[in-house]
Amino acid sequence: DERIPQSGIYIPLITGDRIYGVMTMQHYDANVFGEEDVSLIATIAGQAATALENAYLYRTVQSYAGTLEQRVRDRTAELERAKNWVESILSSTSDVIVLADRQGVLIQANSAFEQQFQYESDELINRSLENIMARSSGPALIDAIKTAIETGQTVDLDSICVRQDGSLFEAELSITSLTSDSGDEPNVVCVIHDVTRHKQIEMSLRASLEKEKELNELKTR
Questions:
Q1: Which helix (H) or strand (E) holds 146?
Q2: Which helix (H) or strand (E) segment is 38 a member of?
Q3: What sign results for the dihedral spanned by CA atoms 181, 182, 186, 192?
Q4: Which stretch of 77-81, 94-98, 145-149, 204-208 has the lowest confidence by average pLDDT?
Q5: Would you say residue 116 has pLDDT above 70?
Q6: 3 state SS of 193
Q7: Where are the beta strands (DSSP E) in 77-167?
Q8: Please, are residues 8 and 26 in contact by the beta-carbon 8 Å criterion?
Q9: CA distances from 4 to 34, 41, 143, 193, 216 (A)
Q10: Residue 128: DSSP 8-state
């Protein structure tokens, strides 16, 4: 059909200050459209503009939601990698590392805890660390935890620890306050290092020095 339209109505699709397009109606005859036609097309154009705006907003929200979901997935993967990295470090050390609250209640422990104290890791969860300390060392541990939290500094402590079978060993404890950005009460990280072997070597060296001293005195006499 090679005829050229002689009449036309052009209505912009507008919502607020955004133009989504133009709606047009054309006719091959001249002077076909009247005021009623213009009013009708304007009403339809207004409804179409609203529908287009809703579609645009929905698409925008979907796109934004997709972006947020990807960010969440990326952040989750990053946290998982960091968690695995920290756990691998904690698992590879021979020192016992425990997380406790300000009252000295055990929250979490690494695998070395089970090997050293002969407890399953969940046996002492939510119980006081005094359960793995000799009676003479328990109160000092609680005081050291309070001091570490109040001062924000690492507190070192010599203690006597007790295993599940009742055997004792000497240990050096290093207690550090662990604050939270969320405003929760601070916890502490406690590193327990078995120094029994070191103490034995130290005692052996002292005995050797005393013996050497006695020999030197005997030689002098």
A1: helix 138-151
A2: helix 35-92
A3: negative
A4: 204-208
A5: yes
A6: strand
A7: 96-100, 106-109, 155-162
A8: yes
A9: 20, 21, 96, 94, 127
A10: B
As given in the structure block, the two tokens for residue 27 are: 């006719």
pLDDT of residue 20: 86
The H-or-E segment that residue 89 falls in is helix 35-92
164-210 residue pLDDT tens:
899 999 999 999 998 766 667 788 999 999 888 776 777 777 777 88
The model's pLDDT over 42-84, given as tens digits with 9 standing for 90+, comes to: 999 989 999 989 988 888 888 888 888 888 888 888 888 877 7
Q: How far apart are CA 132 and CA 159, in angstroms?
A: 10
Tokens of 189: 């990280």
Distance CA 6, CA 75 (A): 61
* Helix or strand (DSSP H, E) at 194: strand 187-194
Rounded distance, CA 35 to CA 42, Å?
10
Residue type, 169: F
List for the chain the helix, strand, coil content (%; round to 5).
50, 25, 25
Question: Nearest Cα to 93, choosing from 110, 77, 78?
Answer: 110
Rounded distance, CA 1 to CA 143, Å? 97
Distances (CA, A) of 149 to 107, 145, 178, 185, 214: 16, 6, 8, 10, 48
**CA-closest candidate to residue 171, choices 185, 160, 187, 183:** 160
